[in-house]
From TrEMBL:
GO terms for cellular component: cytoplasm; nucleus. The gene is THEMIS2. InterPro entries: CABIT_dom, THEMIS. Residues 18-169, 269-516 form the CABIT domain. Pfam families: CABIT. GO terms for biological process: T cell receptor signaling pathway. Belongs to the themis family. Coiled coil: none annotated. It comes from the Eukaryota. PANTHER family: CABIT DOMAIN-CONTAINING PROTEIN, PROTEIN THEMIS2. Residues 544-578, 607-632 are annotated as: Disordered. This is Thymocyte selection associated family member 2.
Amino acid sequence: MEPVSLQDFVCALDPSSLPRVLRVCSGVYFQGSIYEISGNECCLSTGDLIKVTQICLQKVVCENPRTGQTIEIAPTFHGHFSRLTGPQSYGTLEELLSAARQHCKELPICFMSTRRMTTEARVVPEDQPLMLEDVEIYHGAYHARCVLHTKAQQLVLHLPLSQKGPFWEWEPGAPRPLLQALQDPGLNNLLFTCPALPWHALILRPQYEVQAVMHMRRTIVKIPSTLEVDVEDVTASSQHIHFIQPLLLSEALARGGPFPLTTEILEVPEGPPIFLSPWVGSLQKGQSLYIHGLASPPWRVLVSTKGRKVPRHFMVSGAYQGKLRRRPREFPSAYDLLGALQSGQPLRVVATKDYEGDGVESPGFTSLAVGDRLEVLRCGQAHGAEGRDIEVLVCQRLSDQAGEDEEEEEEDYQEIDEDQILLPLYCSSSFVEEMNDGRRYSLEDLITQFSLPCEVKVVAKDSGHPADPLPPFPGLRLEEKITEPFLVVSLDPNPAVCFEIPPRWLDLSVVEAEGQPGPPAGPLSVATVEELTDAFYYSLRRLPNFENQPPPRPPKSQGLSGQKKRSGKEKGGQMTTNMITKRYLNNSGIPFRCWRSPASQLLLRRESEIPANRDETVDKTSLRSDNHLDSK
């Protein structure tokens, strides 16, 4: 077919013939956007192929052919339209009949008047359709015999040929609703009339939204029919063309399959990796990726290692089959005890560091020694120093010996009841949880029976995961349970070795490939433990799941001893890295200082003043610069 404008093609298109393949003959570029404006495509190149799948009517612009004025109506407009035969009106009925004879039209003729007419029988309102059937003599003069159709009956009216209009001729037939009127061929050259609109003659210009598929476009492309582009229909010669439509893993997850699905990676999200697994480097463009289905169960546990200077972080699947044993939790301060305290669950701890009380004067406060056993009861407030209330933990001091008989137990119980102590939240003592639990738990049982966070030790590795990295660590901290859908996938070289991908955080762009993966020779081996990068781990910690975690602990008490320690640290921290200071004593007992200058020369200088305490760290301000010494 010859190239036509997109608007003309869509207006003449039969929706039942979709889909249709179009080739762009003259491209268009809209400067406002490279790709889309308001969700519509505005950039098409010459030669692009478009597979039109659906057209949707957006609105209809009604234009006055005389003045060029326009109004817009919605597709749900309830008015009815009648088709006019010409663009001009007639002043009298005689002019209407004369024009009909010139165009060799036969009676009857359908027409209407844009003004109200008064006859012997009744008043004819404006825009009322009439049918002129014949011309006959009535009361000694020529009259036009017209028929007026009403709901109740048909009335015959005799109008003189000199009856003034203006009159408009319209095609015979009942007025039609908007959607039917738009189906007329040659719509752009037709005139319509509608009593509900202000003009007696108008042109209907519909505007459609064309929904199409294009190469390498992940979503349906929406093109306005008014886009100034010429197209030609190449459906007959394009049956062999396959439009590649990218698919995100999140979209495959949302549509629920069908699985298994063979795909090819088109694009990997930019940014740092989220896992430290070997398969991450294999996720490259062109690599075949088999999607086996949804991972089960849908929950994971965020795990961090204990007992190392630099902790490592893992995400452990709910399908992990290793056995775990609970470990006593460690609490660096009383504030950490507050975070672990839960109603209905006793928390007993043992002090692992002495606490002197920091000089707080209150009868309820006490000192702690290493080995003291406490049961944390609740959080409260107490009257502290300087007349201010401070938050404290109310604890019960426990006896080291169990009662030997009933009387001793009652006495110990009375003594214990009276021995309640208060620990300020800034208490610098450290604690370890007291427990006696040697059971071996599965991960699911542990999550069900105990609250997180929880410290454990893996005592039996996952038999289905030979490279289980968790058993060598002396301790693990189970931090949070995360419920998020994962997809079980594998790569082309070894389809039986599977791993799990979270589309929320690793949303690959793929394209469906032909064929389906064959059934694996044996059971699928799915990795249940994935090590996380630090950046991804801390991004997970910002999720709403971690809102119940306690915030960082407050600063410690600002007592006299704390101020002395801090002052000593500040003075010690004033020494620079390129100035290594040592003390030497000569025969007279006078201290000297030596340091390495930038010129790598060893210089000695007698102190002008001997400090009272020779072990006291000398302030950096007392040191003279190398340039000053050189000048001496």
